[in-house]
User: Which sequence fits this backbone?
């Protein structure tokens, strides 16, 4: 933790020293600026994605914040030639974290954290011409997912990425989608095992204890995602 804090402080100092930069002069050189932890997460998600390329079904991310991982996965689907076969679904309230339950622990300081911008995300989607490939479901997962599935009962999935941190939406995602994930498909949980987000871990552990249709996998090079459930039957 001390090492991480030291890196973040040095990173801030470097940013101030460099001053304002043209956006894409930085973005196009992103490995130069990215921390090792961020890079490891990127590689781990790539490895997970490659393992589901041949699995039928759509892709969904729950808790997209600003949309970085959403667009990353969508671009991977295009790079690997499966975007025309897999619709990508974004479930996000764009209001930040709310609706905490007892299982989430003390989250007084987290209210509104990770608030995204729908208009900014739409601008990025338009830039990369993904309007037809990405469907945004705005609202609380507990409301939008059941409603969406009721209207689309035939839908199946190959890759579901959970990054909404909290207990109740995680439980809804698992309970609603475990039967809709095709064999070989994956649930990935970004904050599993994080002390700060006990709700996500608890919901996953409860699900594992009551369901034997999944193989539990721990990514080797990163803490995020913290856990992968691969459907085996």
Assistant:
């Amino acid at each position: 933790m001390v090492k991480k804090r030291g890196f973040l402080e040095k990173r801030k100092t470097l940013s101030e020293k460099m001053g304002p930069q043209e956006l894409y002069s930085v973005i196009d050189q992103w490995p130069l600026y990215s921390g090792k932890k961020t890079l490891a997460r990127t590689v781990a998600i790539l490895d997970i994605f490659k393992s589901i390329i041949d699995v039928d079904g759509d892709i969904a991310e729950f808790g997209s914040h600003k949309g970085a991982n959403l667009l990353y996965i969508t671009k991977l689907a295009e790079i690997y030639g499966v975007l025309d076969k897999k619709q990508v679904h974004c479930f996000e309230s764009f209001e930040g974290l709310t609706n905490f339950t007892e299982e989430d622990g003390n989250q007084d300081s987290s209210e509104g954290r990770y608030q995204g911008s729908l208009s900014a995300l739409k601008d990025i989607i338009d830039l990369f011409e993904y309007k037809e490939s990405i469907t945004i479901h705005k609202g609380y997962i507990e409301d939008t997912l059941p409603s969406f599935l009721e209207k689309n009962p035939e839908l199946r999935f190959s890759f579901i990425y959970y990054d909404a941190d909290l207990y109740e939406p995680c439980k809804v995602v698992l309970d609603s989608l475990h039967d809709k994930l095709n064999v070989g498909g994956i649930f990935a949980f970004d904050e599993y095992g994080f002390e700060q987000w006990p709700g996500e871990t608890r919901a996953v552990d409860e699900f594992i204890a009551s369901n034997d249709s999944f193989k539990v996998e721990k990514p080797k090079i990163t803490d995020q995602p913290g856990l992968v459930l691969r459907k085996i039957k």
Summary: The chain has two domains: 1-33, 36-231. Residues 42 and 72 are 9 Å apart (CA to CA). The radius of gyration is 18 Å.
